[in-house]
Amino acid sequence: MALKRKKTAGPQFAGPPGAGNAAAPVPARLRMVTESGPGPWLPGALRLSPGSLLWVPDKAGSSQPIELATATRGFITPGDPAFGNSADVTDLHTPAGQVQLELDPTLFEMSQELVTGSPG
Fold it and tell me: What is the enclosing helix (H) or strand (E) of 113?
């Protein structure tokens, strides 16, 4: 009797980046944060692929895509009501500036580790 390999569900990142190696987009809102406070929430999605954790806005022209694979966490005092922090918001430093991502911080770290192969 020959053994058959069971197919697994979920993203498969074997091989070089490309259309066949990207996971389905994950809906996530993002907002820029300046000295005067946070901007409006922008609807969008996270696109995970090998080496990339890209946030892409829903509407073209509403914002530029922001790469989050190399983002570092933290910049706001936890629970600061002026910034509307909650357990489901991740504060990040990115090359584009400071942002808040509406995604559980632990889930963000796991996603970052998945695409980069190392802890953020």
Answer: helix 105-116
The amino acid that residue 104 corresponds to is: D
Chain centroid offset of residue 1 CA: 45
Note down pLDDT in tens along the chain; length 120 residues.
555 555 544 444 444 444 555 678 999 999 999 888 889 999 999 999 999 999 999 986 678 999 999 999 886 554 555 555 567 899 999 999 999 999 999 999 999 999 998 765
Residues 17 and 108: their CA atoms lie apart, in Å, by 20
pTM: 0.72
Fold designation for 24-116: PH-domain like (2.30.29)
84, 93 contact by CB (below 8 A): no
